[in-house]
Amino acid sequence: MPIDATNPVPPQFPRIAGRDNIPDHVPGELVRSVGLTFGPEFLAAPHEYMANLHGTVPPIYYDTSEFMNAWQLIKHEDAFHMLRHPEIFSNEGATPFPRDPDDYFYFIPIEIDPPDHRKYRAILDPIFSPKGVLALEQKIRDLANDLIDEFIDKGECEYTEDFGRPLPVSVFLDLMGLPQEKRDTFVKWAMDLLHSNDRAIMAQSMASITAYLKEMIAEKQANPDDKVISRIVHAEVDGRPMTPPEIFGFVVFLFIGGLDTVFATLNNIWMWLAQNPQRVKEMIANPDAINAQVEELLRVWAVTFSGRVVAQDTELRGVKFKKGDRVTAVLPACNFDPEVFPNPTEVDFSRPRKPILSFAGGPHSCMGAHLARLEVKVALQEWFRRIPEFALKEGTKIEYRPGGVVGPEHLPLVW
Amino acid sequence: MTIVNYIDHDGTAHEVDVPNGDSVMQGAVDNGLEGILGECGGGLACATCLCFVDPDWRDRTGEASEMEKEMLEFSAHGTEPGSRLSCQITVSDELEGLVVRLPESQY
Ligand code: HEM
Ligand code: FES
Question: Most buried by CB count within 10 Å: which residue of A97, A157, A174, A210?
Fold first, then answer.
């Protein structure tokens, strides 16, 4: 039965985990423990590890770990199939982010299945469309330059702290209609929530975020503007105003979905640039190809995954899925599918354009994809203009930590 | 506003008033036509907004760009005469009465 967004209740699906809990319909020969997001081999070089899956595991396998058992998809075609059939692969209960069961809310729009899903997306589509985000371009350019001003004369920076993190946070605050003074606080909340790996710190930061966002929602209720929070607060769905849990679930999901993803993407890309000065020269020499360059870098540096719950028994590539099974599309691996992108790990700016999966696909395709593309593009342009030559600080060891959004933890750069 | 005629695969015609400056894709999606999906919101990133421009209109809608042609290869029907990604056609007075046919499915 479809969920009722006005009356949120925690999902009832059992979370199945561990080798001892493999359902009977899963053939033994398809069981693997790949360790995505946390295994030592994965963490040593995550993208290389995911690219190599095309040679090391079957196209569809059943992954088991102490956190969760789920089917994993690594073929471009299969991921699109999953993403484009929400009636079979549902989003209800598919976002495993813990919430207070006594004050429950759904993440909107990600946890809502079609057809209701579209009603929420329609509220913000004009802002997030390719044309809509262009209104932010100059602002992003200014913010990028302000950040660069702060460290350019030092000849070095810690990229993740000095640029990768504050840029998307500043853009986000502007988009949402929140004050820039909150930048460092937001950075800290996001780090504590998504990178601390400490339950007490996570809970504390979630509580701070919740209190602040609720206060801002009330503020926009009283004083409307044309920014995102205000638009959500004053929007109607099915001719009725949204309920407080709907409004909160929408606003907070933008915080969760729109910050860490851009951050990790920038960090990955700059890590590659710093190690490939020849390619930087090539990019700078071809400024008109910037859009193709951004798309190709987004392809090889995809940072996250799509999870679904099977809503009716189905079959894919001869593998039987049963209602209640969880499925994860390993989007970065799908972007390395050699059938679609020959020589997949090579960064080739002249590839023919094809759909990449970094922002997923289907009705839940990332709402912020055009904004994210613009942020990456402007960041590249302004950085290249001001710091055309740069390198990793000597002795740097690139480290990844466990987490659902994949990017290097630190990135000290020198020029 | 400009009138655009969308013709479903089964022949059903929809006459829609689309604001100038919007794309042919947006005109369809905003009016609930199911023959166009536009999953990526008009970013030339999904190829789910395929349409076939009626022969009489092709010189007015112009040619697909190179990048659009590459994306068309990935659409449900590949490139055929008149096939376009409708997010790349901007509605203007010049297109008053435009006729586009929609494929049976976008996947
Ligand atoms: C490079 C940066 C980004 C990446 C890689 C990314 C990736 C993704 C992916 C893979 C999904 C689909 C998840 C699924 O299928 O389960 C998604 C959904 C979403 N993203 Fe992003 N995202 C990025 C930036 C942003 C930004 C900047 C925003 C907003 C400010 C945003 C807002 C959203 C929203 C609202 C959804 C849910 C869409 C829906 O359910 O209809 N994202 N994103
Ligand atoms: S809407 Fe995605 S390519 Fe046209």
Answer: A157
